Structures are given as C-alpha cells and as structure tokens.
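Schema walk-through. Below, the input block comes first and the output block second. Nothing else is stored per chain. Lengths vary across the set, and this one has 352 residues.
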Amino acid sequence: MHNLEKLGWKNDHDLNEEHVARVMTVQKNSYRISDGETEYLAHLSGKFINEAISSLDFPSVGDWIEVQKLPDEKKAVIKRVLPRKSQFVRQAAGLRTDAQVVAANIDTVFIVNSLNHDLNVRRIERYMLLAYESGAAPIVLLTKKDQMTEEEVESAISLVSEVAIGVPILAISSLNGDGIETFMDQLPNGKTGALLGSSGVGKSTLINALFGEKIQETKDIREDDSKGRHTTTHREMFMLPNGAMLIDTPGMREIQLWDGESGVESTFQDIEAFEKECRFVDCSHKSEPGCRVQEALENGELSEERYKSYVKLQREIAFEKRKQDQKAKLEEKSKWKKISKTQRENYRHKKR
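--- output ---
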C-alpha cells in the first residue's frame, strides 16, 4: 500500500504524490502534517497567505495539501489546500462574522452526547443540520451507557430518534467496551470520522479506549449538572489500529450556524413533509384553513418544541446569511480600494 493510502488518499488529482500530505493537527498557526510515513511541522507560504480570501481557504484537520518538504529538518511549507469532498463548518465563536472549518474530508460525523441529564435533543438538531450541510453522513453516538439502566438507554434512544430521523443511533460505554465493536463497524479501514460534541461527553475517553492507553487527557464532569470541562484544546486526527482515521475536536460551548439551507430539509424532513400537504403553497402555518402543520401540532404528530426549533433555526440561518452578504460587500469594497491604491502608486512611480 502506498504511504498516502494509509491516510485515506484517493489519487483524484494530477499531482506528484511526493508533494502531497494530510493535516493531522491544527494549533493556531501551526500545523502537523503527514505523508503516511513521516510527520512534518508545517507553515503557510507567503503566497498562500496573500492569496487567501476567507478563513475557509486555510487548512483544517483532515485536509489534503500540496507541500514543499524540507526532509532534513522535518519541516514543510504548505502551498495550497486541495479541493475538499466534505467540510464541517460552523460560525466561529464570538461576535465576528467568520466561518470555522472544524474538520475536512470526513466520511462520517459522529454527533456525541452523553446518556445523562445533559442529553439535549435541540443541540443534536443543530449538529444534525450542519452534518448534513457538510456532505458527510451523520451518526448519533450516545456515551456513558454504563451509568444508565437498560430502560433509561432505550428511552433516550427513542427520544433522540424523534429528531435524528433515519440516522443510526449508537449507545456505547468506553469504560466497559459495550457497543465499541458496533461503533468500529461504522468506521472501516481507510475511512475518516470526526467526533463532535460538547465538553464532558466522552470524546477523549473514547479515543483512549480505542487505543487501549491514555492518548488524550480527560477530566471529570461536574456532578450537579453533568457539564464537562474542556480537556482537548486543539483538533487532531488519529490513525486507529484498524486503519481508519478519527478526528477529535475540542468541546463546543456553542454551535452557531454558518450555513444550513440545504441541511434543514434533511434534518426536519418530517416538518417539510407536513408543509407539502398544506392546502396553500404559501401557507404561513398560523391561521390558514387546511394547514397540515397546525393539524399535526394539534393531534400530537408534531411536538411544539420541535416546530419552534425548526422556525428558530430557519430565522437564524436567514439572519446569518444577511450578515455574510453584508460582510462580502464590505470585503469587495475593501478589495477594490486596495487595487485602486496600488494602481495609483504604480502610476506615480512610473511618472518619476
């Protein structure tokens, strides 16, 4: 097997494979990359930085990149990011309108939630939406099964299945190994998965269980509310013993949407189906006669909480879209200002 193939490489590019690597770790502006045989510390070329337009252009964990290696120093320069087949993107934390690529070129997004009183179906809906938007297949992973009774586990799976329609839901225990084999069946040799979820749900504990040793630091959750404390501080991809790749990510305190218009239809396919049965095409689902959505709410086919979440997320996506459009206009204006300034300086220089 070619070294790159160990990392999941499919040669779909007309490139010399000697100049190809995959991003294993991202820590601020520092990258650790691998060609399947050797790991290098890498930085971005000056040309890359100058030509990058948005944060989406920068490398993320799981990216395939074209590099110039410095073998004697085990260092490399990143020249460009190769086209992604999938990317999990969220609105970056804070007030700035900016995208953050959490993981790239993933086959499966594992939405991790623990089986305790921190189980949150509304949060799962948000992850589902962005998972569908990413181009990867979502799977819900419920951890800490050993802390619950069989009845509690079944009840939780039933609750989650109402929002994760048609999506596999796995309950596991990283401590006693229950369900781990089923989890690994979803991540065969050559495939890449990503663990996404809040702090304290057991992502790092699962990584340790898969390796049979302490690879990642873990901390106990707060007993009063099951909230976790941040332990993983950066995104990192691990090569598992079975030949698959698994990306561990820091716990996300907030999962703000960056895009989600196409993901809404898949995430809320039950509500979308009701809407298509309304008497009027432009039904607002408030007081119109023959509204199938209102009928579903009244007879219990659709919960009030799920419908409110659907409306809220649609509004959030529309609001985010307006912010992005405004930012794009300002960036375009700034770009032409710089071009104009450069042209004036060049003109003055020529006249001398």
